[in-house]
Each structure stands twice: as structure tokens, then as C-alpha cells.
Amino acid sequence: MAEILTYIEIEENNVLEASYALISGIKKANNETVSGVIVLHPEFILNDEIKNNLKKFGLDKLYILKSDKPFFDKNEEPFLISGLIKNVNPEIFILLSTTAGREIAPVIASILDTGLTADCTKIEIEKEEDKYKLISTRPTFGGKLMASIICKKYPQMATVRVGTFKKEEINNETMETVEFNFPSIMNLKSEIITYKKDEKNEFINFQNAKMVFAGGLGLKNKENFEKLKLLCEKTGAIMGATRKAVDKGLVDKKYQIGQTGSSTTPEIYVAFGISGAIHHIMGMENSKKIIAINSDKNAPIFKYSDIGYIEDAAKVLDELLNSLN
Ligand SMILES: Cc1cc2nc3c(=O)[nH]c(=O)nc-3n(C[C@H](O)[C@H](O)[C@H](O)COP(=O)(O)OP(=O)(O)OC[C@H]3O[C@@H](n4cnc5c(N)ncnc54)[C@H](O)[C@@H]3O)c2cc1C
Q: What CATH number does the domain containing 285 carry?
């Protein structure tokens, strides 16, 4: 039977909220069987709560992949998933365009010699006789045009931006579980013997953020980014940044939002001194309310904003901090 396979992403010992949204969005739009693959690493406990959630958000079949290595080697993951795909032959395989999704999807597409449409903002699945046709839509020419792309090889693969689908309860009655224990089949050039957490580059969880306050080059200096951080601490927001601010050394790379950074879909996104380049917009355009502060009334960010202030971003930042004292 034809199958639609999704990649279930793990983040800090939990399933990423956006993975639940991906499953329920595909299920709701198509009412077809949706399966998911999860790759377990030794520290992750796939408990009943997670399994129940996967069922609740519409998963019909769960493939659990385990490596026989004592440490989880991210380099191995695409090979394990490709092994599964060769076994179960799904017609479609969809991942999120998160950092992990972007890393593994091209490797899997290459191993399986198929096509991949990256960073999609819309996914449609048509059924022609008993075959699925995936129509993946994504912006092109710097966001001026939308391209709908069809892949002629199988599995048809796409990565989808976080926020494309909303998490909705489907409440499946059953969910089949299939376990695969793959031996380490390939000769990786490197092997992980031990690992140590990089405390400095601690992961920023943008996926569940309610508020994100992000700064761009319009914030000018490190001191203002420190103030932005303080404002975030005081309000419970998560700090974000543009690539230019990162490249100028004003803020750590881990805060970058956009095409080559993280994606986020908070209730409120406040942009301090951000121009609104498409590469940045791609990571935050699905936020519920966007508020922009920019001194240039023609800044593109205002086209994407619900509320715009033509103001000095640093001045607004100071006023907000003062109001909280
Ligand atoms: C392949 C590729 C991938 C990329 N990926 C990313 C990505 O993931 N994330 C990302 O962010 N960018 C990314 N970029 C870069 C992107 O194209 C933009 O260059 C970047 O987003 C611009 O950052 P910015 O808005 O901080 O700076 P600028 O574009 O320089 O804008 C600064 C803004 O600040 C305003 N300003 C100036 N002074 C003040 C003031 N006193 N008060 C208020 N406003 C003020 C200006 O009017 C201007 O609008 C990528 C680019 C490429 C080519």
C-alpha cells in the first residue's frame, strides 16, 4: 500500500512540537495513512506519553529505528532512514526544514537517488489511481515568485518550513508500531567515541517560543544586544537575531533566525532594527503578530508587520526596559 512517511524530530528528549504539526497537517489535508520514522539515540526514552501524542496528532504507523552504537552518531541517521525507506518503499517522505531536517534530507535524497524540494511553504498531495503525487510549493527569485515542483522519482521528498502546518488533534484509534534494529552498516570516516555538551553553544528552543524579540543591524552594538537580552529575561521572551548582526559579532550564531538559522512561529515577534530581507522573513513570517521598529519608513519589514513603529530601535528598547523597572 502506498505510504506517506514523515520524519519525527527529537529535541532535548522530546518530540518537536512542529513534528506533531507536520503529522496532523498532512493527515487532516489528505485523510490518508501517515507514518513516521523516529531514530532513537541512547538517552531518548520513547515513553507512552509520546506514543499517545503521536497517535493523538494523527500518526497511523510508527517506525522506530535503533542503531547498535553506544553513542548516537548524527552522521549515521540518513543511512538508517534510507535503509528503512528501501524496505518499506514510501511514495512520499516529508521532513521539516529545521537544522536537522536540512542536514539529513539531502543526504537521504542522494543515497536514494531521488529529488528533494527544500524549504516548502505549501504541500499538496494528489492521488492518481493508487499513486500519490506530491506538489511542493516554495518561494523562488528572492520571494518574488512561488514555484510548484513535482518530483518524478520515488520517494518524492520535501522539507517543509516550521509553521506551514498547525498542530491539531485527530485522535486516531490505533497506531501500529514497527521496530527496526539496524546494525551499523556503513563505514563512516569518523566514529564518535565519547561526547561533551557544548555549554557555550547551548541550543535555543525557538519552536515553543511564545514571544521572540529579535535584533538586527539597526541595534548597532553589543551593548544594545545585551539590553535586548535583559528585556527578554524580564518578559520571558526568547532573543533572536539577523545574520548580519551575527556576522558583525554583535550576537551569537545560535540566535540567528531565517533561511540559514532557526525558524520560529511565536504569538508575538518583535523586530528591532531589522530590514526584512527575505532570508530573515523565511524564518519568522508565520508568527501570529509581527511588530517592527525601524527608523526607515520604507523598510521591507513593514510589509510583513501587523504593527510598525518608525523609531530608533535602541530608544524603544530603553523605554521598554525603563517601563519594567
Ligand atoms: C543564502 C543566504 C542566506 C541568508 N540567511 C539569513 C538568515 O538565516 N537570517 C538572516 O537574518 N539573514 C540571512 N541572510 C542575510 C539577509 O539577506 C540580510 O542581509 C539580513 O537579514 C539583514 O540583516 P539586518 O536586517 O540586520 O540588516 P540590514 O539589512 O542592514 O538592515 C538594518 C535595518 O536597520 C534599520 N535601522 C538602522 N538604524 C536604525 C535605528 N537606529 N533604529 C531602527 N532601525 C534602524 C535600517 O533602516 C535597516 O532596515 C542570508 C543571505 C543569504 C544570501
A: 3.40.50.1220
Does residue 257 lie within any of the structural domains?
yes
Q: Which mutation among 212, 274, 282 tests ligand 1's pocket best, with the greatest number of atoms within 8 A of CB?
A: 274
Are 156 and 272 contained in the same domain? no
Residues 61 and 9 in one domain: yes
Residue 281 resides in a domain: yes
What percent of the chain is predicted at pLDDT more than 70? 92
129, with CB counted inside 10 A (0-12, 13-18, 19+), is: exposed
- CA–centroid distance, 127 to ligand 1, in Å, is 42
Which mutation among 275, 278, 297, 303 tests ligand 1's pocket best, with the greatest number of atoms within 8 A of CB?
275
**178 plus 249 within the same structural domain:** no
Q: Does one domain contain both 113 and 158?
A: yes
Domain range spanning residue 257?
A: 211-324
CATH number at residue 28: 3.40.50.620
More confident residue, 311 or 97: 311
Residues with Cβ within 8 Å of 190's Cβ and at least 6 positions away in sequence, in order, are 75
Nearest residue to 148 via CA among 121, 115, 108: 121
Q: Which residues line ligand 1 (CB under 6 A)?
A: 216-218, 242-245, 256-261, 273-275, 277, 279-280, 283, 293-296, 299, 312-314
Using one digit for the tens of pLDDT, what is the confidence trace for 243-264?
999 999 999 999 999 988 888 9
163 in the same domain as 34? yes
Query: Atom 49 in ligand 1: which residue has the minimum CA distance?
Result: 275
What's this model's pTM, rounded to 2 decimal places?
0.73
Q: Residue 9 has what pLDDT?
A: 94
Given a contact cutoff of 8 angstroms between Cβ atoms, the answer to whether 264 and 271 are in contact is no
DSSP track, 115-168: -EEEEESEEEEEEETTEEEEEEEEEEGGGTEEEEEE--SSSEEEEE-TTSS---
